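Re: the request from the purification team.
They wanted to know what the chain is likely to look like in 3D before they choose a buffer screen. I agreed to run a prediction and write the result into the notebook, where they can find it.
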Amino acid sequence: IASGSFDKTIRLWDLKTGELIRSLSGHAASVVSLDISQDGHTLASASFDRTIKLWHLSSGDIIHTFSGHVDSARSVVFSPDGMKLASGSFDATVRLWDLNSWRELNVLEGHNGSVRSVAFSPNGRVLASSGSSGSSGTSGSSGTTGTSGTSGTSGTSGTDGTSGTSGTTGT
């Protein structure tokens, strides 16, 4: 089990005993999202320090740090094939990263507020994102308002670096 914390650390726990295996340090602010690669060797973390980090699970070493978000990173996910990483941020963007070249492939700017979640389809060909407008009583681009009074947004993108259609849903 991996857990991110407001104390800027990631903790790895033994699933059977519940004991702490290792604590990872490297972020300068709270760690708010984690994902483990399909092969189980790499951990991705998103932090309020605006970065996405990749970690070797066996050693705890940082493999790479992605920078580009201009506000807190909120969500991170590996593509099913392990070749890409997607991140969402309070800066209202979704960023797609290439894990071979360490380059940013695309910045998707269809949200009108913070992006709180990103997810790939099982085949990795579609990337979905959701978020909120950040202001109560306002609506997203479709004109619908979520049940909480804030508008949620979601969109899809092709994972080849080109954006697809986007729409909105309530939260």
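For the purification team: Confidence is low (pLDDT under 50) at residues 135-171.
Please add any questions underneath this entry.
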